[in-house]
Write a structure and sequence with these properties.
- The termini are close together.
- The chain is α/β, with parallel strands linked by helices.
- It is built from six helices and ten strands; from the N terminus they run H-E-E-H-H-E-H-E-E-E-E-H-E-H-E-E.
- The protein has helices at residues 2-11, 23-27, 32-45, 62-72, 131-142, 161-167; strands at 13-15, 19-21, 53-57, 76-82, 91-97, 104-110, 119-127, 146-156, 172-182, 186-189.
- A hairpin with a 3-residue loop joins strand 1 and strand 2 (19-21).
- The strands form two sheets. An eight-stranded mixed sheet has the order 5-6-4-3-7-8-9-10, with helices on both faces. It has a two-stranded antiparallel sheet with strand order 1-2.
- Helix 3 (32-45) crosses helix 4.
- The longest helix is centred in the N-terminal third of the chain and has 14 residues, at 32-45.
- The radius of gyration is 16 Å and the shape is globular.
- It has a single domain, classed as Rossmann fold (3-Layer(aba) Sandwich).
- The structure holds guanosine-5'-monophosphate (5GP).
- Guanosine-5'-monophosphate binds next to strand 2, strand 7 and helix 5.
């Protein structure tokens, strides 16, 4: 998606070798017009599928996911992150190591909001090592629903999550795939 790549080039800040900061349009301040275009693009890419529900993880996936759900005319559910072990029986849970916070989160979704047999499209802001996506896919499977695919805004293709999950059969559509990045040389896309 050229509009997104241009924006990443313009406003993205590379930290070290593997963190891309896009706080000014995605992770802190949000550009609603860009989020709308992203939602339209995910709708176009997955238009061959009937989508019953969009699933993301709080917080940064929500904006693009809600726009995607609007185009599909379906609800958006976001998984909650908590570090407590105090779980209600009424939730699906999975564990995900947080790439940005370097802590393990327990990810939960209420059993009320995802049901057996539903086609679920997973949306997230970044794909790095794949922990967040695995946790979301795991919850979909626990519910007896079908993970029809994942829409990722920015995939850091030099990290191994995308290759591993595609090899496991998950359909992943990424709008910008970063081949390499560094503080000195900037960002290169695939
Ligand atoms: P993974 O679980 O695939 O290792 O990492 C994906 C999750 O970590 C995403 O939900 C995203 O919030 C966060 N993340 C991973 N890499 C980056 C990055 O370079 N920049 C930002 N802002 N978040 C990232």
């Amino acid at each position: 998606m050229q509009q997104l790549k241009d924006r990443i080039k313009k406003d993205g800040v590379v930290i070290g070798n593997d963190v891309l900061k896009v706080d000014c349009f995605l992770n802190h301040q949000i550009d609603p017009m860009l989020m709308d275009s992203i939602g339209a693009e995910f709708h176009r890419l997955f238009s061959d599928q009937k989508i019953d529900r969009v699933l993301t993880i709080e917080a940064s996936g929500i904006a693009a996911a809600v726009m995607t759900a609007k185009y599909f005319g379906c609800p958006l559910v976001f998984a909650k992150k908590s570090r407590t072990v105090n779980q209600s029986a009424n939730v699906y849970t999975s564990k995900a190591f947080s790439f940005t916070h370097k802590t393990e989160n327990t990810v939960t979704v209420s059993k009320e909001y995802i049901h057996a047999g539903e086609n679920v499209l997973i949306i997230d802001d970044f794909l790095a090592n794949g922990c967040a996506l695995r946790a979301l896919r795991d919850i979909v499977i626990q519910a007896g629903a079908i993970p029809v695919g994942a829409g990722i805004i920015i995939e850091k293709a030099f990290q191994n999550g995308g290759a591993e999950l595609r090899a496991e059969g998950l359909r992943i559509e990424s709008l910008a795939r970063v081949k390499s990045m560094s503080e000195t040389d900037g960002i290169e896309f695939i």
